[in-house]
Amino acid sequence: MNKMMLSLLGGVFVILVGGIVFLGTFKLPAPTQAMEVQIPNDRLSLQ
């Protein structure tokens, strides 16, 4: 039972370390299109 628990903890550790390394080295691609958000006029009025 102890050996199975140790193997399970080792697997979880490897997955966590792998995820941290992946997120630390992953380069997010730049957007390919310009994004425009139109704000309705009623939000900009001073009344």
The percent range for strand residues is under 5%
The rounded Rg comes to 24 Å
Question: How many domains?
Answer: 1
**Tell me about the biggest sheet?**
none
DSSP, total strands: 0
Share of residues in helices: 40-55%
Low-confidence segments: none
How does the helix and strand content classify structurally?
mainly alpha
Mean pLDDT: 87
- End-to-end gap: 72 Å
Shape: elongated
**Number of helical segments with 4 or more residues:** 1
Order of helices and strands: H
Characterization of the model:
The protein is mainly alpha-helical and 47 residues long. The chain has one domain. It is built from 1 helix and no strands. The protein has one helix at residues 2-25. The radius of gyration is 24 Å and the shape is elongated. The mean pLDDT is 87.
Could you give a quick summary of the protein structure above?
The protein has about 45 residues and is an all-alpha fold. The chain has one domain.
Write the layout of secondary structure elements.
Layout: H1 2-25
List keywords for this structure.
47 residues; mainly alpha; 1 helix
